[in-house]
Amino acid sequence: MECIPNRTFDDIRVGDAASTARTLSERDLELFIVLAGGDTALGRGGEFYATTDMLQQVAAPSLWSSSLISWVIGTQLPGPGGLCLEHHLHFHKAMQPGDTIKLTLTVTGKNRADHSITLDCVCVDRQGGRVFSGTLRVQAPTVRICSPPAELPVFHLAERGARHKKLVEMTSQLEPIATVVVHPADAVSLEGAVRAAEANLIQPILVGPPARIQAAAQSAGIDITAYEIVAVPHSHAAAAKAVELIRAGRGQILMKGSLHTDELMSEVVRPDSGLRTERRISHAYVMDVPTYPKPLIITDAAINIEPDLLEKRDIVQNAIELALVMGTVQPKVAILSAVETVTPKLQATMDAAALCKMAERGQITGGILDGPLAFDNAISKQAAETKNIISAVAGEADILVVPDLEAGNMLAKQLAYLAGAAAAGIVLGARVPIVLTSRSDDILARLASCAVAVLLACRKRDLLKNAPVE
Length: 470
Fold this sequence. Notes:
Blueprint: E1 4-5, E2 17-23, H1 26-35, E3 43-44, E4 47-48, H2 62-66, H3 68-75, E5 83-91, E6 100-111, E7 116-125, E8 130-139, E9 146-147, H4 162-170, E10 177-182, H5 187-198, E11 202-208, H6 210-220, E12 228-231, H7 235-247, E13 253-256, H8 261-268, E14 282-288, E15 296-299, H9 309-325, E16 332-336, H10 347-360, E17 368-373, H11 375-379, H12 381-386, E18 399-401, H13 405-418, E19 422-428, E20 434-435, H14 443-466
Parallel strand pairs: 10-11, 10-13, 11-12, 13-20, 15-18, 16-17, 16-18
Antiparallel strand pairs: 1-9, 2-6, 3-4, 5-8, 6-7, 7-8, 14-15, 14-19, 19-20
């Protein structure tokens, strides 16, 4: 439609009518909450609740349905230039998500003195039952207008952290896992461990200088009397002692506190640590991106600086196994580069092609690989279709494998600071999962990191139980 015409006062006749139909969706209700001010008293979990005793079911506020009146007035009767002067409405019943209503406005009178028209208003459901009814007085325009339709903004409604909450919920039926927390000597890292313990995710063993841990607890206002403290003098000793405790079977998860990642990982990767496997150790971010429809794993953004082909193979396999533990069946893996064509001058594209062939030959299992893919093609079907890319992965990626650490680090932080994403961090490929959080992570991200580690630890435990006795 090039423009929306109106009807002037003189054009309108008694008996003229206009109508529209609409199905109430959960999205309508969520947007109504936002527009109404976002007060949680209006609804919980995207649902509205009627307040009268006779309507104690999920219901939309009466004024949601009546808001359709403005649409009919502004686009049909009288159209652009119309102005509602007053209305008298009676609401007969509540609406539930999925209900379809039809609103009809009928002209019953005209007043030339102020160019107003009187409208009878009736809104019914599919069965013909009245939702609301009443009368309106609307000022009609006196000049013909043909108004171009407005280009409305696109709204993205998403609960930040919703997917991380689901990860935590996945562990609700599992026993808490013994976790060695390395040098939790500041309030942030200590609180993250304690909150995970309170959520029945972990049983923490705190390794570090007792005086500093107690000071951190006092600063955070938390009670740590129920948790074991293993005394060591400083962060380096804490990393060494934590690895020793894991090797001795005291814990099934390692959790980073307030020490540098390099300091912890240098102890983990030592040849005599007992934590290394034949698999390359790698890091993965489990990103909760509000504008993406599912969890998104980014790897490697914290450990492997410039991985070669065989190291990338392990990075991919680690990420696939993580996605499988999170409940994704046949995770879709996008091997990222700047372009989507194999180009000898861009080593990332050559590696991507080789990784896909390795997957075909069974050297990488459990997922569906494609690459090279540019970032837009990996996460947008429209972008992939524009470039005529036919792929089972394009636009539906569960895992993004970046060319190097710098690319991965920048991508994760861009999503966090420009798209409102939350990141849970985990180290894979060692004999136990390692929770690797950032000082800027909020409590939910820390809980999600612990939840992922718990899922991985439980899987490892079950695999050991099912392993054949040699």
